[in-house]
Design brief:
It is built from 6 helices and 8 strands; from the N terminus they run βαβββαβαβαβαβα. It is α/β, with parallel strands linked by helices.
């Protein structure tokens, strides 16, 4: 509590796991185990990690590689979790954030586009932003974190989608790492993401 007995309202980060993960993945994987938890504790954030349907937030679609899209039910699952946490905990509604890696990044882009009034800022790590999400997503500050040696999501495509989002009027920060697809699990990545979140309120 704060002085005078007021209850402290906490910022919330919803973190969506990559394909093959689950709701505890961010706290168990090598290189992730103490990263997001430590960062959240140091900065006073609550972190929630939902479980994707069948351990993935995306599905394969017809088209040129990478032919992937958010599962239709993904945005509603994440939105329902946010609503439940807001009911149970004292959350600062102006500081609700969304992030995800790989499949979780696709989920983050799609969910922020579906609920443009919900999130103060989002971050997508090594996951492609769907073109159909750009027009609505431009309302939410977006960090796009990409890997130069990513063999699943070409860096050229990541640059192209980030540029399209910016040209549509979005607030975009584009970051590249010289590593590969899974090379985002260092503490410096989470520092970057939480720095981004702390800059934005709705």
């Amino acid at each position: 509590t704060e002085e005078g007995g007021d209850v402290t309202a906490f910022p919330l980060v919803v973190a969506c796991h990559p394909a093959g993960g689950d709701e505890i993945a961010y706290f168990q994987w090598k290189g992730n185990a103490d990263r997001i938890q430590t960062m959240a504790e140091q900065r006073g954030f609550i972190v929630a990690c939902p479980a994707g349907p069948d351990r993935a937030w995306h599905e394969r679609i017809k088209g040129p590689a990478p032919a992937v899209a958010s599962k239709p039910e993904t945005p509603a699952i994440i939105d329902a979790l946010v609503k439940e946490i807001v009911k149970q905990r004292h959350i600062d509604a102006s500081r609700i954030y969304l992030m995800g890696a790989s499949s979780g990044a696709i989920a983050s882009f799609a969910t922020a586009a579906a609920y443009p009034e919900r999130f103060a800022a989002i971050a997508g790590v090594c996951g492609v932003c769907p073109t159909e999400a750009i027009e609505t997503l431009k309302q939410t500050p977006t960090l796009v974190f990409s890997a130069e040696k990513d063999r699943l999501i070409p860096i050229t495509l990541m640059r192209q989608r980030a540029r399209a989002l910016e040209e549509a009027g979005g607030t975009v920060k584009f970051v590249e790492t010289p590593r590969g697809h899974g090379g985002y699990r260092g503490l410096e990545t989470y520092t970057l993401l939480f720095d981004w979140f702390e800059k934005h309120r709705r």
